[in-house]
Automatic annotation (TrEMBL):
Pfam families membership: MARVEL
Residues spanning the membrane: 33-55, 67-87
Organism: Bucco capensis
InterPro entries cross-referenced by the UniProt entry: Marvel, Synaptophysin/porin
Protein name as catalogued: SYPL2 protein
Topological category with respect to the lipid bilayer: Multi-pass membrane protein
Similarity comment: family membership: Belongs to the synaptophysin/synaptobrevin family.
């Protein structure tokens, strides 16, 4: 929800005044899907461990239970792939929306004839990139 993030932009006319601008975009859905799937995967793993350890005889005697477990695990693997791809796309959209050159292009104060705007440092996205690889 980048639109909720404000930042201050100086006014070239009056240096004591600033304009409050907001980032553009809402990329929360892929992140929420990724986290929700992670929580459900964890809960299913805990339930499967209880089934494997506590009710081992029921699991080994019933022939449909291992197949159902395999099908649910296969579904989780597929949804995990989809969630990782969605989070990767969401992250690339966040990077594009917060790129310093994109932010400078969206600021009207930087479009003056004798105005030079500098972004300073580029934000570090290493940890965000690692979250997609996981």
């Amino acid at each position: 929800r980048l639109y909720q993030i404000p930042f201050e932009m100086p006014d070239c006319e009056d240096e004591s005044q600033t304009h409050t601008l907001h980032l553009v975009g809402d990329f929360s859905a892929p992140a929420e899907f990724f986290v929700t799937l992670g929580v459900f995967s964890f809960l299913y793993t805990m339930a499967a461990l209880v089934l494997y350890l506590r009710f081992h005889s029921l699991y080994s005697e019933n022939k449909k239970l291992p197949f159902a477990d395999f099908c649910v695990t296969l579904c989780f693997a597929f949804f995990w792939l989809v969630a990782a791809a969605a989070w990767g796309k969401g992250l690339s959209d966040v990077k594009a929306a917060t790129r310093p050159s994109s932010l400078l292009a969206s600021m009207a104060v930087c479009h003056g004839p004798n105005t030079v705007c500098n972004a300073g440092t580029t934000p570090a996205m290493g940890l965000a990139n690692i979250s997609v690889v996981r």
